[in-house]
Design a protein that fits this description.
The structure is a single chain. By secondary structure, the protein is α+β, with helices and mostly antiparallel strands. It has 15 helices and 44 strands. A 6-stranded antiparallel sheet has the order 4-3-5-11-8-9. The protein has a 6-stranded parallel sheet with strand order 30-29-28-27-26-35. Helix 5 (369-381) runs parallel beside helix 6, helix 7 (426-443) packs parallel to helix 9 and helix 13 packs across helix 14 (611-639). Keywords: Disulfide bond, Glycoprotein, Glycosidase, Hydrolase, Lysosome, Signal. Exoglycosidase that cleaves the single beta-linked mannose residue from the non-reducing end of all N-linked glycoprotein oligosaccharides. Pathway: Glycan metabolism; N-glycan degradation. Its EC number is 3.2.1.25.
Length: 774
């Protein structure tokens, strides 16, 4: 057995006492299905789907129709189990806890065959006291229940009135009643994603043993005092005191680069205790603030906090502290009814430009640190400054937010509720309250997070009557809405985090929604708050169709991913736009027809006699269409920043839908083969299908290598619109792509994300332009 043992010791010389022992249970576990007919090893953190794939028992879950073929996995009840021996004398410790950072989702936990607790929330952290059941040699079991079956049971038990929607649209091939389980909502399917409601231990699991007292949690918030013109730091530490007597001592907080150190005397009574500290930064010290990308540096300061307690017990924590203020400004605008909706960072108005973030994979154990960094670096490279963490996914892992802090990416953080109404029975609310309180504590120290939002589109769903609720029944659902997002989530945010604003939904009318009783008659108004806008019928080259709103937090157009992406999850009979595979992969009703319609407004549709050539050209054309549509709409919102026309405008944010994909399928994403669609700006005087004189461009490339970078020297025989460079499955980023090539030669750089060779690139390289279709 691989040993994962951390001894947390004091750092202050002899005579000190070990604060705690932490023993990790990561690594190999045993997994079996409900009737015991299937047993296999599996990794923790991980999930059942990944374990089955790693053992060769299933194919890639994303291959062809496997989202349907493997539905049985999510409908079974799986058990994770492990036996282990402690490498230390467990009897010497007063308190022993089992810590589960993330369980997906419904489980009963047995420790040495004794039931110690249950889990019902993927987004919560669980701690169970195992002091009286732990031994030198131990067994642990997590007996999971299918989240699909659990959700159906919970819905059936809610007999007072229905809580819609029951099921997703048929085109999504998904599971039902996801709003009754606190699990990643898109795991039951979405209009861009598959249904893989898996089971497993998706985050860290460990055992903690301690004497006297233990620091359970430590968090902080920088607060700027405008009247005194100085910074303060509010620090909160949560302790479990197992001593029968009070524990006294001192706390020393130090931020060396700010020449700040302060000492406090504390006394901890037995039981669960909270210590609140207030650290003042002298106004004579210059504090460099954290700024979004493109507006300044992301300066942070190292802070240490040392608890010197009775009995020689010392506990030390360290953290990076960033100082920044954020304000959501909603105020009257001259020449326009309604209110503004924009953000000030450190007192400076910032236009939010970026995208929406969804989970990077259906199976979180496959989301590596390297993948997160590559995706987030791509955001910065594309000159974005904001991502909205959408409410149908997950609260991202710590490293995501740490990278956003480091890179200067502002985060609009939804709570995980989306496109549904939700129950408000006490058990559900208790689970939500624990989830929200935990996530606030976990995330509030990150300067990148600039706003909390209660949900995605649920105010609009309710007030625009997506679910055909009768007018007489609507007050019931409004009451539930206010109970969940205002009386519970908002209450917890206001109590737990004073450093950033909160809105109940997106889209919402902000202050106007509050004035109307927390639900607005038109939550998508151009005069208040933010809007979500989608229009696949109007000509996207005509900027007059777009709303001149205060803030556009969702908008976009679909496209297909590149052929090299699809090729890995399909077979030859799938390679046509009307194949069973293409229809199956499209989860948005009418999406394929909408793409062709929009493309046909300005481009000639492919007419090759070669079916495969037609498929590849059609895929390429949907990407060109998407890029042009998103470009036109984004430019419209940015241009509307500084103008009021017909009483509308003052747009201060544009976040297109969506940055990344979760699988290989048509979607609104701009990233697929980890490539970013970011063409150079240009303007066409007419639709290209009406252009005269375009002839087929013969484009060649000579590839050379300079260190870790590859140089593509391109040469063309004619003007080539929308030149697209493709290197197949080799991950990396071109310095430019999707460009208009009017000059005879052009040099493009390729930055690989994994080691590769010139010969591999030459074999994989393919270039396409619009003239290949014409």
């Amino acid at each position: 057995m691989r040993l994962h043992l951390i001894v947390l010791l004091a750092l202050c010389g002899t005579g000190t006492t070990a604060a705690a022992l932490s023993y990790s249970l990561r690594g190999n576990w045993s997994i079996c299905n409900g009737n015991g007919s299937l047993e296999l090893p599996g990794a923790v953190p991980g999930c059942v789907h990944s374990a089955l794939f790693q053992q060769g028992l299933i194919q890639d879950s994303y291959y062809r129709f496997n989202d349907l073929n493997y539905r049985w996995i999510s409908l079974d009840n799986w058990t994770y189990s492990k036996e282990f021996k402690f490498p230390f004398a467990i009897s010497k410790w007063q308190k022993v806890n089992l810590i589960l950072e993330g369980v997906d989702t419904i489980s009963k936990i047995l420790f040495n065959e004794v039931t110690i607790g249950e889990t019902d929330n993927m987004f919560n952290r669980y701690s169970f006291d195992i002091t009286n059941v732990v031994r030198d040699v131990n067994s642990i079991e997590l007996r999971f229940q299918s989240a699909v079956l659990y959700a159906a049971q919970q819905s059936k038990a809610h007999t007072r009135y229905p809580v819609p929607p029951d099921c997703p649209p048929l085109v999504q091939k998904g599971e039902c009643h996801v709003n009754f389980v606190r699990k990643e909502q898109c795991s039951f399917s979405w209009d861009w994603g598959p249904s893989f409601p898996t089971q497993g231990i998706w985050k860290d699991v460990r055992i903690e043993a301690y004497n006297i007292c233990h620091l359970n949690y430590f968090t902080f918030s920088p607060i700027y005092d405008k009247s005194a013109q100085e910074w303060n730091l509010e620090i909160e530490a949560t302790f479990d005191v197992v001593s029968s007597k009070p524990v006294g001592g001192q706390v020393i907080v130090a931020i060396p680069k700010l020449q700040t150190q302060q000492m406090y005397n504390i006394e901890l009574q037995p039981g669960k205790r909270i210590v609140e500290l207030f650290l003042n930064i002298s106004k004579n010290i210059t504090v460099e603030t954290w700024w979004p990308h493109g507006h300044g540096n992301q300066t942070g300061y190292n802070m240490t906090i040392l608890f010197e307690l009775d009995g020689g017990l010392n506990i030390e924590k360290s953290a990076k502290v960033y100082f920044r203020t954020v304000e959501l400004i909603e105020e009257p605008i001259k020449g326009s009814p309604g209110l503004s909706f924009y953000f000030k960072i450190n007192g400076f108005p910032i236009f939010l430009k970026g995208s929406n973030w969804i989970p990077a994979d259906s199976f979180q154990d496959r989301v590596t640190s390297e993948l997160l960094r590559l995706l987030l670096q791509s955001v910065v490279d594309a000159n974005m400054n904001t991502l909205r963490v959408w409410g149908g996914g997950i609260y991202e892992q710590d490293e995501f937010y740490e990278l956003c802090d480091e890179l200067g990416i502002m985060v609009w953080q939804d709570f995980m509720f989306a496109c549904a109404l939700y129950p408000t029975d006490q058990g559900f609310l208790d689970s939500v309250r624990a989830e929200v309180a935990y996530q606030i504590k976990r995330l509030k120290s990150h300067p990148s997070i600039i706003i909390w939002s209660g949900n995605n589109e649920n105010e609009e769903a309710l007030m625009m009557n997506w679910y055909h609720i009768s007018f007489t029944d609507r007050p019931i659902y409004i009451k539930d809405y206010v109970t969940l997002y205002v009386k519970n989530i908002r209450e917890l945010v206001l109590a737990g985090d004073k450093s950033r604003p909160f809105i109940t939904s997106s889209p919402t009318n902000g202050a106007e929604t509050v004035a109307e009783g927390w639900v607005s008659q038109n939550p998508n108004s151009n005069y208040f708050g933010d809007v979500h806008f989608y229009d696949y019928i109007s000509d996207c080259w005509n900027w007059k169709v777009f709303p001149k709103a205060r803030f556009a937090s969702e908008y976009g157009y679909q496209s297909w991913p590149s052929f090299s992406t699809l090729e890995k999850v399909s077979s030859t009979e799938d390679w046509s736009f009307s194949s069973k595979f293409s229809l199956h992969r499209q989860h948005h009703e009418g999406g394929n027809k909408q793409m062709l319609y929009q493309a046909g407004l300005h481009f000639k549709l492919p007419k090759s006699t070669d079916p495969l050539r037609t498929f590849k050209d059609t895929i390429y054309l949907t990407q060109v269409m998407q890029a042009q549509c998103v470009k036109t709409e984004t430019e419209f919102y940015r241009r509307s920043r500084s103008e009021i026309v017909d009483q509308q405008g003052h747009t201060m944010g544009a976040l297109y839908w969506q940055l990344n994909d979760i699988w290989q399928a048509p979607s609104w994403a701009s990233l697929a083969d980890h490539e970013l669609l970011c063409p150079t700006n240009y303007h066409f005087l007419s639709s290209l299908k009406e252009a005269v004189g375009l002839c087929k461009a013969q484009i060649t490339a000579i590839i050379s290598q300079q260190g870790d970078i590859f140089v593509f020297d391109l040469e063309t025989s004619a003007v080539a619109p929308f030149v697209w460079l493709d290197v197949g499955s080799i991950p990396g980023r071109f310095s430019d792509n999707g460009f208009l090539m009017t000059e005879k030669t052009r040099t493009i750089l390729f930055y690989p994300w994994e080691p590769t060779s010139k010969s591999e690139l030459e074999q994989s390289f393919h270039v396409t332009s619009l003239t290949d279709i014409y």
